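Acyl-CoA dehydrogenase 6
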Amino acid sequence: MLNISMVLIIDQEINPHVDQWEAEGKFPAHKIFKILGSAGFLGVNKPVEYGGLGLDFSYSVAVAEELGNIRCGGIPMAIGVQSDMATPALARFGSAELKKEFLLPTIMGDKVACLGVSEVGAGSDVSSIMTKAVRNGDEYVINGGKMWTTNGTQADWMCLLANTSDGPPHRNKSLICLPMNLPGVHIARKIDKLGMWSSDTAEVFFDDVRVPCKNVIGQEGLGFTYQMLQFQEERLWAVANILTTMDNIIQETIEYTRQRKIFKQPVLYHQSVHFRLAELQTEVELLRSLFYRATALYIKGNDVTRLASMAKLKGGRLAREVSDSCLQYWGGMGFTSDVPVSRFYRDSRLMSIGAGADEVMLGIICKYMDTLPKK
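Predicted structure tokens:
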């Protein structure tokens, strides 16, 4: 039933409008999230008492896979931020009061969430963030800024990572639930991007923003640790989502090259083409196996940082390979904005940058292999 409902929402409420939202550089997050929340898709693995379905993480990735059928990358990414990137730490470590104020309406689609981690000088290097939250009585006074904030221009609240002390960089950070309508929160601009056009991305500044200390998720000083745990789900979610899109792009390329002729025969009939598509589909299936293994271990309570990093690394590189190879077979049409393959070519490039660049994934993998040089 969940799968049928998701298909209907995508086919009736999202895909018919994707071209318009891509052109406008924004989709109506509150409207779409309310539809998804009412259908139960924004909290499938979240507690029932806060509006979730109480299922395990495999159901979240099943939703992510289905969202890969949306005809762009920006909207699934925005949904993923809402369901599996800004809320895992809150659901796992937040107080009952915070969950009621922020998690419940987010799962129901009544509030739009964003995640405030990256900054101009600190993207993949999370430990280098400069935003500070200084305790003043029972409040934090927050100054700094966040960059590349998905949902940022429409968000009602931010899961903010900030320095709450001057201690070591891995133990001085906290995650804070920050309402976006507070005095001192400034949306500096909506960022124009290479891809993901329909997803609004903001640069946000904080000027003496006051937030109650009770808005800290879990324990003060453990924000870096909580964010690293959130990254496991974020990276697995991203792989799940892009797997379906790669399947679709390969299939649509097969259909197009079967119709398009060159040198008096379909493009698909050239051995270099159908062999290459076979190779790409094989690579997708190998990634799917790695991803399912990582997800199964994660559900059983294992630390899957190594496998999630491998899947994220391979997902980003394979997406670039699939999009580039398939676009080539569309010829001149592939260089237009009228076909899904060109949109995927633009959108999928983010996979090797966002939520930890390829080089960061390699560093994590090397750490688990014990091959990093000793300092």
